[in-house]
């Protein structure tokens, strides 16, 4: 009687669970990595993604692990955070070290190793698996982690949405009321084909028509940050922020005569690559949420002092609209030209 039809290790059998492994530095994750993982996911029932990091690498391993865990909740994302040799030339027992290390994360299997580099073949042999090369010639996603780290803005289209905020240039528009902040933020966003972050406080105050309470200030600062971070994922290289938590500290001083602790802390933690400080040399335009028509010059001085105390890089924008536009674009072009 004929026995079962023999199958090669790489041939799939119906009803048999298939497992896969992909390892990487993912520094940072890019479209080439996503291609490998997305493809692998479709070919196996359970995929382990092993994020390998070493201390002192330019992007902390913890961040890379968090990125992939968020993006692939349906995979077994694990983090290898210990010093192991990176290349066979670095250690005579390189392959046995890697075999033992991988076995701690994947005790049995896997059936398939997914890798676009040839080491996938050796690793697969070692683990009794089959190597699935994904795109060895990098023709589908011609990108590498090194290229991104060297010039992230140049390779923006190869950055996944969840990595973009890490490299995004954030520009804060800062200054007294009625100096054209919102118009400038909106028009800059259109010009640079990106997003801008409106003032969270405006909508909040409109929806809560009463005197501001001390607790409103931390909430306003947190709401501003939440809106900014949500929009950061949609932005194209640069994000224009029409205010920030440091501004909230100034308004807290005006209204409360003190700065609630959470607001100071949020203001200190927040990072902007550039701040445009708008001068008060344009006419006042009244509206229901503007409070200091006669103290704009004093408020400007407080703004400048706050930026200096915070050690923030800023450029003062003055003059008529055309001059303001030209100065703002020059400062932003210089920022984007830096790698
Ligand atoms: N070099 C070796 O012989 C060897 C052997 C065993 C283990 N390791 C270790 O494995 C870990 C992962 O290293 P890595 O350099 O492969 O990580 P990586 O983050 O550069 O790449 C992860 C995976 O994505 C693939 N990939 C990268 N760019 C791609 C693109 N543009 N298109 C398609 N696929 C792409 C790679 O081939 C790899 O399979 C490191 O810790 C390394 O030390 C290396």
Automatic annotation (TrEMBL):
<dbReference type="Pfam" id="PF13521">
    <property type="entry name" value="AAA_28"/>
</dbReference>
<dbReference type="InterPro" id="IPR038727">
    <property type="entry name" value="NadR/Ttd14_AAA_dom"/>
</dbReference>
<dbReference type="InterPro" id="IPR004821">
    <property type="entry name" value="Cyt_trans-like"/>
</dbReference>
<feature type="binding site">
    <location>
        <position position="30"/>
    </location>
    <ligand>
        <name>NAD(+)</name>
    </ligand>
</feature>
<dbReference type="InterPro" id="IPR016429">
    <property type="entry name" value="NAD_NadR"/>
</dbReference>
<dbReference type="GO" id="GO:0000166">
    <property type="term" value="F:nucleotide binding"/>
</dbReference>
<dbReference type="InterPro" id="IPR027417">
    <property type="entry name" value="P-loop_NTPase"/>
</dbReference>
<dbReference type="InterPro" id="IPR052735">
    <property type="entry name" value="NAD_biosynth-regulator"/>
</dbReference>
<dbReference type="GO" id="GO:0050262">
    <property type="term" value="F:ribosylnicotinamide kinase activity"/>
</dbReference>
<feature type="domain" description="Cytidyltransferase-like">
    <location>
        <begin position="22"/>
        <end position="69"/>
    </location>
</feature>
<dbReference type="GO" id="GO:0000309">
    <property type="term" value="F:nicotinamide-nucleotide adenylyltransferase activity"/>
</dbReference>
<protein>
    <submittedName>
        <fullName>Uncharacterized protein</fullName>
    </submittedName>
</protein>
<feature type="domain" description="NadR/Ttd14 AAA">
    <location>
        <begin position="170"/>
        <end position="324"/>
    </location>
</feature>
<dbReference type="InterPro" id="IPR014729">
    <property type="entry name" value="Rossmann-like_a/b/a_fold"/>
</dbReference>
<feature type="binding site">
    <location>
        <begin position="141"/>
        <end position="143"/>
    </location>
    <ligand>
        <name>NAD(+)</name>
    </ligand>
</feature>
<dbReference type="Pfam" id="PF01467">
    <property type="entry name" value="CTP_transf_like"/>
</dbReference>
<keyword id="KW-0808">Transferase</keyword>
<keyword id="KW-0547">Nucleotide-binding</keyword>
<dbReference type="GO" id="GO:0009435">
    <property type="term" value="P:NAD+ biosynthetic process"/>
</dbReference>
């Amino acid at each position: 009687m004929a026995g079962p039809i023999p199958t090669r290790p790489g041939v799939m059998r119906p009803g048999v669970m298939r497992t896969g492994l992909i390892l990487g530095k993912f520094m940072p994750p890019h479209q080439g990595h996503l291609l490998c993982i997305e493809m692998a996911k479709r070919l196996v029932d359970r995929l382990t993604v092993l994020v390998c990091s070493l201390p002192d690498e330019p992007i902390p391993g913890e961040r890379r692990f968090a990125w992939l865990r968020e993006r692939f909740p349906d995979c077994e994302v694990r983090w290898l955070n210990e010093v192991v040799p990176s290349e066979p030339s670095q250690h005579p027992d390189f392959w046995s070290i890697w075999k033992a290390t991988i076995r701690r994360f994947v005790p049995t299997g896997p059936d398939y190793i997914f890798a676009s580099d040839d080491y996938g073949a050796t690793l697969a042999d070692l683990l009794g698996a089959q190597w699935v090369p994904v795109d060895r010639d990098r023709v589908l996603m011609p990108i590498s982690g090194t290229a991104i780290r060297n010039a992230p803005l140049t390779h923006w289209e190869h950055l996944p949405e969840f990595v973009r905020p890490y490299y995004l240039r954030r520009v804060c528009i800062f200054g007294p009321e009625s100096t054209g902040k919102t118009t400038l933020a909106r028009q800059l966003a259109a010009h640079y084909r990106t997003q801008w972050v409106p003032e969270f406080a405006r909508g909040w105050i409109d929806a809560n028509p009463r005197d501001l309470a001390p607790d409103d200030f931390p909430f306003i600062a947190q709401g501003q940050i939440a809106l900014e971070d949500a929009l950061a994922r949609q932005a194209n290289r640069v994000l224009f922020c029409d205010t920030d938590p440091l501004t909230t500290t100034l308004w807290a001083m005006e209204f409360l005569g003190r700065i609630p602790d959470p607001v100071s802390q949020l203001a200190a933690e927040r990072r902007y690559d550039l701040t445009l400080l708008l001068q008060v040399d344009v006419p006042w335009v009244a509206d229901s949420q503007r409070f200091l028509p006669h103290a704009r010059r004093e408020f400007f001085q407080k703004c400048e002092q706050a930026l200096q105390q915070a050690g923030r890089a800023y450029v003062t924008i003055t003059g008529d609209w055309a001059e303001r536009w030209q100065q703002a674009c020059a400062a932003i072009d210089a920022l984007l030209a830096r790698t």
